[in-house]
Amino acid sequence: MERHYKSDENTKKMIELKNVCKTYIMGEGVTVNALQGLSMHVNEGEHISILGPSGSGKSTLLHMMGLLDKPTSGKICLDGHCTEEMSDDERAYIRGKKIGFVFQTFNLIPSLTALENVMLPMMIYNAPREEREERAMELLTQLGMENRAGHKPSQLSGGQRQRVAIARALANDPPIILADEPTGNLDSKTSTEVVEIFDDLHRRGKTLIVVTHDEGIAGCADRVIKIKDGRVLEEERLVKRRKRTYGSKD
Ligand SMILES: Nc1ncnc2c1ncn2[C@@H]1O[C@H](COP(=O)(O)OP(=O)(O)OP(=O)(O)O)[C@@H](O)[C@H]1O
Ligand SMILES: [Mg+2]
Known about the structure:
The chain is built from 7 helices and 10 strands. By secondary structure, it is an alpha/beta fold.
């Protein structure tokens, strides 16, 4: 399926960061400036890859975008909602509704089954248990995991855990998916499968932001943003040619 990049004038900004700084205070006068005046935006339906060396601030950036943490200064707007004045409850609500997270280490709850893990984010809506169960099962089925719904994370392979984590990220049908090294712990075949799932989510209109060290995976995006020392170093808009395979050299 061809994807055409829409011009900026016609496109809604899904995420916008202006001059965002994040300083971690370590005590005894030690501080870490993880983000140093970072500005960027992500359009609705865009697939962005974020590349950068270890320690450059990629995870910090994703945490800020996902409202898991607050910036020290600067402005973050999500789908038209500016977040700096929001209460913690409002932030949690927006996060639950607008954002799905996928992590390198899956971050599933070990004591819960795959189905229960996927049902968890749906708690914010107070929907009846049967409804949540049905929706979670539907998502696991979409990801080819219907036969593992009753398994605990420790009874699943890495790729299967990541599929459950992706199903969980989709639980509330958020418009934005943030993924931090989602293939970092997977072998190349399983990585390809996960990349294909992301590609499919993008085709279905999700806005995707994927942090990766892998240039092959980064090459699947509409735009690559390189960060260094907590700032945007450069960005490159990629022309969509054809489906790329994980690890392909061309
Ligand atoms: N909770 C924290 N407290 C103190 N310093 C932190 C914290 N989280 C990150 N840092 C520091 O902030 C900087 C950016 O870290 P971050 O985790 O965002 O990097 P990264 O680009 O994701 O690296 P990697 O590729 O290794 O995952 C690093 O110097 C790190 O040591
Ligand atoms: Mg990181």
